[in-house]
Amino acid sequence: MGKSNPKTKSKSNARTKSDARRARVEEIRRAEQTRERRSRLLTLGAVTVILGGLVTGGWYLVAAAQDKEEAKAAPVKGVKSWSKLTQNHVTTPVDYPMSPPVGGDHNQAWVNCDKQVYTKAVPNENAVHALEHGAVWITYSDKASKADVSELTDKVKRTTYTFMSPYEDQSSPIVLSAWGNQLKLDSASDARVQKFLDKYVQGEQTPEPGAACTGGMTP
């Protein structure tokens, strides 16, 4: 038998190791490409979800703003309005032509009117000044049910630029007043309560929009 050539054997072993290294490198490269593709897909999916959320959220915000503007523009059935109301500061009682009053001369101090619930009557002259600042005044007589008073109380506590007090000299159980505008109701569950608030809280009727509803007087 002939003897094997050591040099030939060495070269063969070298080629085998080289082929193995190339195969290993190729395997690593393919694995890296797979990871990169997976990463790109995950990133693309995340971006798609985020963009979808932004678009959906954007449309929601636009729709909500549009609904709010439409609510402000839409008339509220049953509202009675007055115009050419005076705005002088006085220190004496005022004989208002409507009850509760919705505007006219008033005291220089406004009643605090930011989510404020009063269990006793407030002076007309101070309440009217709050209306001048864009607040809505909710009043109720002893004809209003306890459930209605409770519901209105919860609503006022959640709504800025509103205040509430008992008022016996009114013809309906519940009355909502804004500067120059008034709505008389029998029940707090009437959908027009929210419509009135949407339209008249800091609404277009406000003589002094942006004026404070705090820092006034508390009876």
TrEMBL record:
Residues 1-14 have a biased composition (Basic residues). Residues 1-36 are annotated as: Disordered. Keywords: Membrane, Transmembrane, Transmembrane helix. The chain crosses the membrane at residues 41-62. Pfam families: DUF3105 (PF11303). Residues 16-36 have a biased composition (Basic and acidic residues). InterPro entries: DUF3105. This is DUF3105 domain-containing protein. It comes from Streptomyces phyllanthi.
